[in-house]
């Protein structure tokens, strides 16, 4: 079996792979995309960090490929959808570099207070300048942590040890969890208004992209110090540049960028109050050994026919079982994703109910698929079939599963229900239909609907009056959005109706605002399945 180690992982990991009987290891770092296409022709596994891009073309060029292993968390450099289509397992090592990244973040926070990097550069130039490098203390300052997950939580502990007041914004986290960490829960606006320091620690999703933009900087104190060791794009770079130049932001520390590697002529490189590192969060001996050995073991397990661990696109089951379960996993994942997008950010429990034929199947895997789907927009690629229940628990969300023997009216049915803290529920039901086992949504928030569970959906609650379908159709047409399919539902004529509209392209912000702003529309959500 051939394994391509495409990025530099720990030598101990490479050594582990070399020692496996029948394994041939090729180390090729920094290859061009063309070279990668050539190298993968006969490989069974690829190990990467974040540099080498494993694109759709790579999967097409690698007929023997079974597994791509990412020594680290984010699989942004791997086309996971294409991998799944080609039946290739994509796995990561989700927690091996938490401490390393938290420590780098704190190093940035310290360097943003005391210009150590700038003073060291001046000493290297032979100077003895004691006037230009005065700093500020962390003690009694307010740190705002946006995203209180694994890394955010470790940063909080360190900030508390330095005598900082810690505010945290994480809309998915139960308040009790934050309390246990001795941080004060706050809204994003409270953090923006009160923080002397802000650090972000969430994945890059549609929700988090440009979360800190021009409008956010407007709300901040003058002299803010801000740090990003999570993902480029959470802080809008053009807005940060403007804020640094105007003095609104006194110092920034960045490890990640909208485009990596950072352009040679990036303005950030010229600014004296910015400390930049080249995506070094995970670059410690300990973290690299941990993720390098872990990924090597995981790859060897898959190629040896053993268990699949930390797969982001498949559960830990064998290929034969996967064939039967595949459509149910897909349906479960889509219902989970749908319910997350129609429910409020903070929920108390996630309930799943199975009826009919599904009850006989491996409900554990399907449950994890639902939970992973639910967490996809919250935890990004950090969530997989292994850690989904753990992440739910960490967010303080109770997971309930029921297998029902009542008659649901379908030969098989799955219901996913999110229960908010106020007891309000948000739900979707689905089944499989036809020869191809196509996933269908057959219920939403207690209403019967019937629409394919794929692609882009608008979920609209509106008054049941003549002309509503036409109104929505016209607003979408104005934005050149084509309707693929539609399902209408109401309890009583003239009451509140549901309209599920499957669209070919995403309506722009103006069209969405116009739909939401229509006086007959009670709510409208755009959902990506
Ligand atoms: N610089 C590096 O080298 C490096 C290394 C490791 C991880 N990372 C990145 O750091 C980030 C955090 O990693 P982690 O392991 O702590 O992840 P995690 O999943 O443990 O935590 C992420 C947290 O973000 C929260 N969140 C999601 N959406 C949010 C939103 N809209 N607003 C506020 N909070 C939100 C989630 O609820 C969760 O608690 C990820 O983007 C990861 O890729 C970077
Ligand atoms: O250095 C790396 O491999 C990237 C680390 C980090 O961004 C991750 O996603 O794990």
TrEMBL record:
NCBIfam families xref list: PGDH
Instruction: Give the GO terms filed under biological process for this record.
Output: L-serine biosynthetic process
Associated pathway: Amino-acid biosynthesis; L-serine biosynthesis; L-serine from 3-phospho-D-glycerate: step 1/3
The chemistry this enzyme catalyses reads: (2R)-3-phosphoglycerate + NAD(+) = 3-phosphooxypyruvate + NADH + H(+); (R)-2-hydroxyglutarate + NAD(+) = 2-oxoglutarate + NADH + H(+)
A Pfam family annotated for this chain is 2-Hacid_dh
Positions of the ACT domain: 457-529
Q: EC?
A: 1.1.1.95
Tell me which domain of life the UniProt entry assigns to the organism this sequence originates from. Answer: Bacteria
| Gene Ontology MF terms in the entry | NAD binding; phosphoglycerate dehydrogenase activity
This chain belongs to the protein called D-3-phosphoglycerate dehydrogenase
Tell me the keywords, alphabetical order.
Amino-acid biosynthesis, NAD, Oxidoreductase, Serine biosynthesis
What's the stated role of this polypeptide?
Catalyzes the reversible oxidation of 3-phospho-D-glycerate to 3-phosphonooxypyruvate, the first step of the phosphorylated L-serine biosynthesis pathway. Also catalyzes the reversible oxidation of 2-hydroxyglutarate to 2-oxoglutarate.
**What InterPro entries does its record include?**
ACT-like_dom_sf (IPR045865), ACT_dom (IPR002912), ASB_dom_sf (IPR029009), D-isomer_2_OHA_DH_cat_dom (IPR006139), D-isomer_DH_CS1 (IPR029752), D-isomer_DH_NAD-bd (IPR006140), NAD(P)-bd_dom_sf (IPR036291), PGDH (IPR006236)
Q: Which organism is it from?
A: Termitidicoccus mucosus
């Amino acid at each position: 079996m051939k394994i391509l180690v495409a990025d530099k992982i720990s030598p101990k990991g490479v050594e582990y792979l070399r020692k496996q009987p029948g394994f041939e290891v090729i180390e090729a770092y920094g290859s061009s995309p063309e070279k990668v296409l050539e190298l993968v022709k006969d490989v069974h596994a690829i190990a990467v960090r974040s540099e080498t891009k494993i694109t759709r073309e790579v999967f097409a060029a690698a007929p023997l490929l079974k597994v791509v292993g990412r020594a680290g968390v984010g699989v942004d450099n791997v086309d996971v959808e294409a991998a799944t289509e080609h039946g290739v397992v994509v796995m990561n090592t989700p927690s091996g570099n938490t401490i390393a990244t938290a420590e780098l973040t704190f190093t940035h926070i310290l360097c943003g207070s005391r210009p150590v990097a700038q003073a060291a550069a001046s000493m290297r130039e032979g100077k003895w300048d004691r006037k230009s490098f005065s700093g500020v203390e962390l003690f009694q300052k307010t740190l705002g942590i946006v995203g209180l997950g694994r890394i955010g939580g470790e940063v909080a502990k360190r900030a508390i040890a330095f005598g900082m007041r810690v505010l945290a914004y994480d809309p998915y986290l139960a308040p009790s969890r934050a309390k246990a960490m001795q941080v004060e829960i706050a809204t994003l606006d409270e953090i923006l208004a009160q923080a002397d320091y802000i650090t972000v620690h969430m994945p890059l999703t549609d929700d988090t992209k440009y979360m800190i933009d021009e409008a956010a900087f407007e709300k901040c104190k003058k002299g803010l110090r801000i740090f990003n060791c999570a993902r480029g794009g959470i802080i809008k770079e053009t807005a940060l540049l403007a804020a640094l130049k105007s003095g609104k932001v006194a110092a920034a520390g960045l490890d990640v960028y909208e485009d990596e590697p950072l352009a040679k002529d990036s303005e950030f490189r010229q600014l004296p109050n910015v400390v930049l590192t080249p995506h070094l969060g995970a670059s410690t001996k300990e973290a690299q050994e941990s993720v390098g050995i872990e990924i090597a073991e995981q790859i060897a397990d898959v190629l040896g026919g053993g268990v699949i661990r930390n797969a982001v696109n498949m559960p830990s089951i064998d290929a034969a079982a996967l064939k039967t379960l595949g459509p149910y996993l897909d349906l479960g994942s889509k219902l989970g994703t749908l319910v997350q997008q129609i429910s409020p950010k903070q929920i108390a429990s996630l309930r799943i109910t199975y009826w009919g034929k599904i009850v006989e199947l491996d409900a554990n895997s399907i449950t994890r698929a639902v939970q992973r789907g639910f967490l996809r927009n919250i935890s990004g690629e950090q969530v997989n079939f292994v850690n989904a229940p753990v992440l739910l628990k960490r967010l303080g969300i109770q997971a309930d599963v029921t297998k029902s023997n009542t008659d649901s009216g379908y030969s098989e049915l799955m219901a996913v229900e999110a229960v908010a803290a106020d007891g309000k529920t948000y739900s979707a039901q689905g089944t499989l239909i036809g020869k191809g086992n196509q996933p269908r949504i057959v219920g939403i928030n207690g209403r019967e609907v019937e629409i394919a569970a794929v692609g882009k959906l608008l979920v609209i609650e509106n008054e049941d009056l003549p002309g509503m379908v036409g109104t929505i159709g016209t607003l979408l047409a104005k934005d050149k959005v084509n309707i693929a399919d539609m399902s209408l539902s109401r309890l009583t004529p003239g009451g509140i109706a549901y309209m599920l509209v499957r669209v070919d392209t995403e309506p722009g912000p103006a069209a969405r605002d116009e739909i939401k702003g229509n006086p007959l529309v009670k709510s409208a959500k755009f959902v990506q399945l």
